[in-house]
Amino acid sequence: METLSILLVLTVFVAVIFGLWTMQKKYVAFSKRVFAGLGAGVVFGAVIQLLFGADGAVTQTSIDWISIVGTGYIRFLQMLIMPLVFVSIVRAFTKIEGTTNLGKISSTVLTTLLGTTAIAALVGIVSVMVFNLDGAQFVQGAAETARIEQIQQTQQQVADITLPQQIINFIPANFFADLANTRDTSVIAVVIFSVFVGVSYLGVRRKDPENGEFFEKIISSIYAIVMRIVTLVLRLAPFGIFALMTRTLATSSIQALINLGVFMIASYAALITMFLIHLAIIAAAKLSPIQYLKKTWPVLSFAFSSRSSAGALPMNIETQRKALGVDDASANFSGTFGLSIGQNGCAGIYPAMLAAIVAPTMGMDIFDPMVILTIVLIVVISSFGVAGVGGGATFAALIVLGTLGLPVTIVGLVISVEPIIDMGRTMLNVNDSILAGVLSSRRIKSFDETVFNEDTATVQTEM
Which residues cross the membrane (predicted)? Predict the structure, then answer.
């Protein structure tokens, strides 16, 4: 009976995959296929849990097979990350007219990412206050106990790393090792090396135009190949999102959602508040927030379901360039920098909320302006080097809590609802990097409002 149930679940899964493939063959809009996969995953996952339970043998075995599609898609995207980061940043330098724009783009992107992270940290602290979570105690079960042990082991590895040492870790000693993503800080190390290559190119272009032009052609050719691979991989998005959402809904613990319900509500209240602040900034830039949402929703919905800022990078850059009218340089800079600097959700709201929750247990008054300012500053500084892949939020929280001298067990206690909250965090991370690109492009007067206001100009045109 168990084997028959597993076969039935997998048969339905394959049938939905075939349905999504049929929609693609009929040239149904990419965004509609993404939403169809998202909705089908929610319903199918919920039904699996309802019939067989989150920890049932049928559910676990079925999800193991279903994860081939979901995890496989994420790995295809991650396969592209390092090459795309390198070639995107270097190509951005080839598209910059003069060093003045370089300074404006980099300063605007960094200011936006770090400034909004500071605001996000403050929003997270306020959310803890509003929902009376300061000093809250959470239920500790077997899963939480095991997670706490892992967290404490990880904490021991980073406990002796000072801030100067952390900064040193950003510097690439072996570019090829970082290109292979062998360290937690490999992404930002590749970003730094790429910036060196780009700046060197500007010098060569000025002193030796012939070689500069030759290098630009090589980078443009490599970029074209990489982006073609990106297009091919993104066509798998509806299938990957369907599988990922099925897994999330089928394996989430309903009891854990109830026990940590207030924390989860407080987290999403903070995330939604910060998202509205992003839209307010868009409105302040004299752009329509509604039009912005229409253009960015495909990539934001993917980020929500995939829980990977790095995985969303290719679609992030394409959305900025082809749907919003952001210039190439700003789109590439903001998308790649946003992977490792100033993530509003994972490196802003999340660690700030955890710090605010446990601070009272150590005699700290979170209503004290100096305590709030201290948490915000540490969160902003610690937001450097947080990789946009699984575990980035945990790493950021450990750094913040460790620096403040607070217990890290809180990170393990909320592990049961981590996947649900991480969906919203990732969506906010990606949106912040897009926001940085829009503001940068507006500042250097390269933003194409015609593309922004054109309903047909979206990433779905090539999908």
Answer: 6-22, 34-52, 72-93, 105-131, 185-204, 225-245, 257-285, 370-389, 395-417
> CA–CA distance from 229 to each of 7, 77, 89, 236, 459 (Å)?
33, 10, 17, 12, 15
Q: What is the pLDDT of residue 163?
A: 62
pTM metric for this prediction: 0.81
Structure-token match 């991989």, residue found: 233
Confidence at residue 98, expressed as pLDDT on a 0 to 100 scale: 59
Whole-number Cα distances in Å, 415 to 156, 174, 360, 403, 409: 19, 34, 21, 21, 10
Instruction: Output the average pLDDT for the chain.
Output: 85
The structural domains of the chain, ordered by start, are 2-462 (1.10.3860.10)
Tokens 């829009």: give the residue.
Answer: 438
Query: Of 4 and 395, which is predicted with more confidence?
Result: 4
Q: What is the pLDDT of residues 247-301, one digit of tens each?
A: 888 887 776 667 678 899 999 999 999 999 999 999 999 999 999 999 998 889 8
CB-CB contact of 387 with 186 (8 Å): yes
Phi/psi for 307 (5° steps) reads: 60, 35
Distance, CA of 158 to CA of 444 (rounded, Å): 40
Task: Annotate the chain with three-state secondary structure.
Answer: CHHHHHHHHHHHHHHHHHHHHHHHHCCCCHHHHHHHHHHHHHHHHHHHHHHHCCCCHHHHHHHHHHHHHHHHHHHHHHHHHHHHHHHHHHHHHHCCCCHHHHHHHHHHHHHHHHHHHHHHHHHHHHHHHHCCCCCCCCCCCHHHHHHHHHHHHHHHHHHCCCHHHHHHHHCCCCHHHHHCCCCCCHHHHHHHHHHHHHHHHHHHHHHCHHHHHHHHHHHHHHHHHHHHHHHHHHCCHHHHHHHHHHHHHHHCCHHHHHHCHHHHHHHHHHHHHHHHHHHHHHHHCCCCHHHHHHHHHHHHHHHHHHCCCCCCHHHHHHHHHHHHCCCHHHHHHHHHHCCCCCCCHHHHHHHHHHHHHHHHHHCCCCCCHHHHHHHHHHHHHHCCCCCCCCCHHHHHHHHHHHHHCCCCHHHHHCHHHHHHHHHHHHHHHHHHHHHHHHHHHHHCCCCCHHHHHCCCCCHHHHC
pLDDT at position 160 is 59
Q: Which two tokens stand for residue 400?
A: 């913040």
Q: What percent of the chain has pLDDT over 70?
A: 88
pLDDT at 230 over 70: yes
Question: What residue type is assigned to position 433 of the chain?
Answer: S
pLDDT band at 7 (very low <50, low <70, confident <90, very high): very high
